[in-house]
Amino acid sequence: MxxxxxxxxxxxxxxxxxSHYVECRWTxxxxxxxxxxxxVLEFPPFGDRDMxxxxxxxxxxxxxxxKIEVHLFSPEKNxxxxxxxxxxxxxHRTGARVACGDTVNFGRxxxxxxxxxxxxxxxxxxxxxxxxxxxxxxxxSVRFLWLVPITAEERAFKMEHGAxxxxxxxxxxxxxxxxxxxxxxxxx
Length: 188
Fold this sequence. Notes:
This protein is of the alpha+beta class. The protein has 5 helices and 8 strands; from the N terminus they run αββββαββαββαα.
């Protein structure tokens, strides 16, 4: 892995989310498809932001044609988010490449007894274009996406009506993206 690429990713996150973070690695059953530099950065709450942020670092590699990194917000510190993002990165490297508007199955609720067991890859609405794109000196760009926890019903709605319609429903409902037990914003 190119050290300049790793440093550019970390610098991009630090500019937006504070310079204090912890580098985390999922040590159980580490996927070999991920580069040795891959980790999840854990940002504690800071300033007016009262949530934890977990972000992939090196989910995509310098030679990838569409480079992406993914982050997840959490109401509390939770080591299982490192596993979740590591699994997503592994799927991205070995299964199908994920992109904005895709959904993923978490395989279990985001939090124990929670309602959200899927995720929607969305634009980073809370941080906007300052986070969404990192333009590298070599002319390449990295796109940063928000993994929004959603319910199985919301995923089914997205499959039928599209990601934009689901995002509109989430916004109209004023959903709390930090509430692991929030009700679905759609019903069939």
